[in-house]
Amino acid sequence: MGLRRMKTIVDYLNYNAEHYAKKHAVIMLNDKGEEAERLTYSEINQKILTLAGYLQQNFNKGDRALLLYRTGVEFIVAFMACEFCGIIAVPMSLYAKKSPHFHRIEHIMQDAAVNLILTTEKLHGEVLEWLAETPYAATPCLPSDVLVGNRPWTSADVQPEDLAFLQYTSGSTGNPKGVMVSHGNLIHNSLLIKHKYQHDNNTVMGGWLPFYHDMGLIGLILQSLYLGSTLVLMSPVAFVKHPMNWLKAISDYKINTSGGPNFCFEHSIEKANDQKLEGIDLSHWHACFNGSEPIKSQTIDAFSERFARFGFSRNLFYPCYGMAETTLFVTGGTPHVAHETLTVDREALAANKIIFQTPDSSSAVTLVSSGQAYDLDVVIVDPVSHQRLADGEVGEVWIHGESVAQGYWGKPEQTREIFHAELSPSNGKHYLRTGDMGFQQQNELYITGRQKDLVIVNGRNIYPQDIEQRIKESEPLFASGLSAAFGLESERGERVVVVQEIDKRHGLEPEQLTQLITRLRFEIGRYFEVPVAVITLIARGTLPRTTSGKVQRRRTKEMWLKGELPSVFGFDELPVASKE
């Protein structure tokens, strides 16, 4: 098949398996950073075809397959086998069996009406044991790495408009939303990434990002398979434990494109060890992408300075912006060209106004550009009037183009509201409302905050109402009291703050309150996999509410920052500077 006729990722992988059969497609590293497995394009394609033959024989095009895997080649094979058959993949992370994370998986199984579950032979028993305790015990659960069909795979005639997978955005227990990504969306976004990063099939890609997350799945795995390049992968757990192994892999395999959320660079600085870094060479790094959470100029400066003597240059940083609703990529810069920054007034920015400042001003804050769009219409809009705003005016970021996904699975009203917005006056286009606030200056996009209440910690999106609901469910003393969770920018990125009402009539002693807060921090951290920096207990009935009784999170945050809430007891690990 010629390049001009290729319409799906299936077409591209088949082409690459034919033309680059002996080229290494995937190299897996273990938790020690040592090579554990490598597969050529011919080998991985054969594994995919074997599984696809079985799936095609036993399931139907359009079925939903929940993918429960830990980091490994098996996930890539299972995901691509689904694509070959026209089965809609639903990638999810898999943690310890007793983790509350499994409750979220149940909600997603219900939401997506999952027809089958794929996992590995090693994890099969564990998943079956969990499944038996759910309402979905009858759902077929199969070990994909040992399945063999009786008939070879035949083309499923997958078209660009067919759904490729559902990307669940929030991990929300109450209202998970599956973004419907089509094959056309996937190929268009893959093309954008290739163009903006200046990739080709000689590019070596690698990293530690979770496979189930859009940045790891599309930005690394599928981009590499689309290009016909080589991909080097390690697990997120391995990175967190030993971030120097990530940098060592970049050196050893001469990786050109790698990166992650802002926190990963801070983590690498904190754990940097010159002895372990001895002999590494980062000069082959072509694009060090930084996205998925607020990008900090000081982090970029600190990382560049710390690793300069190992061949890293500040110009290698590649700030970018994207989301699941646009498949992944929206804006980015130019490799090896220094990204733009603007210094503005902090107080004016909080009021969604841009006033330029000198860097030495006490009220100055540096904003990092997320780059420019390519083949997407990115506009800044007044979120109330829906009128387009001029350069330098802060508004909501709206996006139109072929990478914008099809909507939320099974949620037509939310799809219309979020994916089908129109400008006033209308230009005939439907736009995605991102909920992010920002402005454009000389075609550069600057993200300034979020209109929505999402908390983003270490690249994870968390709805505050989910934290609040978990508190009610996990602690009987808080079952009747209200709470407000919100994010707060600190020197180490965004952190979770919880303000919780408690009835003074319980008469708890300080030691008991300390134990209560410790349990609460542990439960939230375990359930959402993020640390809680602050828990403030306040008297019952004192949390700001609307006239209808709803919690006012933003007002709570304002009062908390000003010290206006009547605190009963609390835990606080944030430095004073974070609250000023």
Automatic annotation (TrEMBL):
Keyword Lipid metabolism attached? yes
What residues does the AMP-binding enzyme C-terminal domain cover?
A: 453-566
Q: What is this protein called?
A: Uncharacterized protein
**Residue intervals passing through the bilayer:** 67-90
What keywords is this UniProt entry annotated with?
A: Fatty acid metabolism, Ligase, Lipid metabolism, Membrane, Transmembrane, Transmembrane helix
Membership in a protein family: Belongs to the ATP-dependent AMP-binding enzyme family.
Q: Which GO terms describe its biological process?
A: Actinobacterium-type cell wall biogenesis; fatty acid metabolic process; lipid biosynthetic process
Domain (AMP-dependent synthetase/ligase): residue spans on this chain: 16-409
Give one Pfam hit by family name.
AMP-dom_DIP2-like
InterPro entries named in the record: AMP-bd_C, AMP-bd_C_sf, AMP-binding_CS, AMP-dep_synth/lig_dom, ANL_N_sf, FAAL/FAAC
Write down the species: Rouxiella badensis
> What PANTHER family does this protein map onto?
DISCO-INTERACTING PROTEIN 2 (PTHR22754:SF32), DISCO-INTERACTING PROTEIN 2 DIP2 -RELATED (PTHR22754)
Single GO term (MF): ligase activity
Against SUPFAM superfamilies, the record matches this protein to: Acetyl-CoA synthetase-like
